[in-house]
């Protein structure tokens, strides 16, 4: 058998190339889209709210997000030469970019949105160029760095969820700013709590767990309609089908500070996509080499370059769909491609997008608490695999999370700094990424090794009491002899568990 024939046979036998028939392919494709739908519409709704867009303008963002996600999914699954990993990966709008984009938008409305688009175009183009060299860059993002960043992403989005529930503290009436009488209204909080309860209960039921967020949005919206807390009057005026208008909010604006912030975000997105490509390769049990990773990243970045043209934001592989592949055992990339085609069709229907844009904000907030909390929990899970004993990794996590939360707890902290600096550090994810990368270089790269006596911050928990072979930690945890290395100490002696 020739080399060419062997290669052809190997490709034909790839698990991801399995064809399931039209019915199952469409069915499993719909399932993939339902599993990620809440995430793909949440980002444009968040950014639309931050920019103060009207419901009609927010509907444009939602439609554009669906359209780009569909195109990106088709490119990633079906592939073109040098573009697309040809793996069952769903592409959607990245949550990693949300806090940075909110910081860039600021109080500038649609001009802030145009600045976001300019930053995304430049940053994604830079990501596309560095893809062949990304193996060197990715080493700057070990789990201690990525875990810290992902944790900050989730935590920094929590104010967005609570803001959806309570509404704005002030409103403008006749040109004057006055307190909002509907701020933190009990009906809104009750609606959010009910939505949260639906998401949690659905997550407990195995057959519904993957659809829990979507079910929460659906049931919460129905209850809001019955209670008179929502209306869909704008849906009837939307057209059934229409192509997304390029640059619907104006041509992009380019600033240095916004671009630097977005470059950091793009690097994080590339790390996430690389991890998802490798993870889905293991789940599918197929070969994933450096070239395939590169093709997947190029598809990711190419979609992100095109996204602002059609009023959307950076794309990335959705990790929840990797879990769905593992759960269902359906490994066909063509099933995911069918889901991408569905996303594309939905993106071409302003009426469908208007329906999703009309979901009441308290409903979004109730689901958002779980959704954003899950992002933070994913970061904590990554950090759980980091080695802390005998290292200064605890310092890296502590400092990067603290810097990442500064803009959350004190939004005006950097107000007196230069504009370019304030734009970068006003984003929690940018702050966390810069601090985490620099400290990781300082502690683990420039002077690698395990210090014999790490700083007091990095040290382990104190041992309050040791009696015989039993230790009682400051946390209250009791350790038996199998849990630690015995040390010589008199009963009642206070020692450190370093």
From TrEMBL:
Main location: membrane
Subcellular location: Cell membrane
Superkingdom, natural source: Bacteria
Key words, A-Z: Cell membrane, Membrane, Transmembrane, Transmembrane helix, Transport
Topological type in the membrane: Multi-pass membrane protein
An example molecular function term from Gene Ontology annotations: xanthine transmembrane transporter activity
Transmembrane segments: 33-53, 60-83, 116-137, 144-165, 185-207, 214-235, 247-271, 334-357, 363-383, 395-414, 420-443
One GO CC term on file: plasma membrane
Record-linked InterPro entries: NCS2, UacT-like, Xan_ur_permease
Protein name: Xanthine permease
């Amino acid at each position: 058998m020739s080399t060419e024939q062997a290669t052809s046979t190997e490709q034909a036998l790839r698990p991801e190339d399995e064809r399931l028939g039209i019915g199952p392919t469409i069915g499993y494709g719909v399932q993939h889209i339902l599993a990620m739908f809440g995430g793909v519409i949440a980002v444009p709704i968040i950014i639309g709210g931050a920019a103060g867009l009207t419901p009609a303008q927010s509907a444009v963002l939602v439609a554009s997000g669906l359209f780009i996600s569909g195109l990106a999914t088709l490119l990633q699954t079906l592939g073109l030469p040098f573009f697309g990993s040809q793996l069952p990966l769903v592409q959607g709008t990245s949550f990693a970019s949300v806090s940075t984009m909110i910081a860039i938008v600021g109080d500038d409305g649609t001009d802030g949105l145009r600045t976001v688009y300019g930053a995304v175009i430049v940053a994604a183009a830079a990501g596309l160029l560095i893809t062949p060299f990304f193996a060197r860059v990715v080493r700057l993002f070990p789990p201690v760095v990525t875990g810290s960043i992902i944790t900050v992403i989730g935590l920094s989005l929590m104010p967005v969820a609570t803001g959806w529930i309570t509404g704005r503290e002030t409103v403008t009436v006749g040109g004057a700013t006055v307190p909002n009488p509907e701020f933190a209204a009990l009906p809104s909080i009750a609606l959010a709590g009910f939505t949260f309860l639906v998401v949690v209960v659905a997550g407990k039921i195995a057959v519904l767990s993957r659809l829990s967020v979507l079910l929460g949005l659906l049931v919460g919206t129905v209850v809001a309609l019955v209670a008179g807390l929502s209306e869909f009057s704008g849906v009837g005026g939307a057209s059934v089908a229409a192509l997304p208008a390029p640059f619907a909010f104006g041509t992009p604006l380019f600033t240095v500070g916004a671009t630097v912030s977005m470059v950091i975000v793009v690097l994080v997105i590339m790390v996430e996509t690389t991890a998802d490509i490798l993870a889905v390769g293991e789940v599918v049990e197929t070969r994933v080499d450096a070239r395939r990773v590169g093709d997947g990243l190029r598809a990711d970045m190419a979609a992100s370059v095109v996204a602002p043209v059609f009023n959307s934001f950076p794309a990335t592989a959705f990790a929840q769909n990797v879990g769905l592949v593992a759960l269902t055992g359906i490994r066909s990339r063509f099933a995911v491609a069918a889901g991408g085609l569905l996303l594309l069709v939905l993106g071409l229907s302003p009426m469908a997008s208007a329906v999703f844009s009309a979901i009441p904000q308290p409903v979004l907030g109730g689901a958002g608490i779980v959704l954003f909390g899950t992002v933070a929990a994913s970061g904590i899970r990554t950090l759980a695999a980091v080695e802390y004993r005998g290292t200064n990794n605890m310092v890296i996590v502590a400092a990067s999370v603290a810097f990442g939360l500064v803009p959350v707890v004190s939004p005006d902290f950097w107000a007196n700094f230069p504009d370019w600096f304030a734009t970068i550090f006003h984003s929690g994810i940018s702050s966390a990424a810069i601090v985490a990368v620099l400290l990781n270089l300082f502690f683990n790269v420039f002077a690698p090794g395990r210090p014999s006596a790490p700083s007091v911050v990095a040290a382990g928990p104190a041992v309050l009491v040791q009696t015989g072979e039993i230790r009682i930690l400051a946390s209250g945890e009791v350790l038996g002899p199998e849990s630690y290395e015995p040390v010589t100490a008199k009963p009642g002696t206070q020692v450190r568990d370093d």
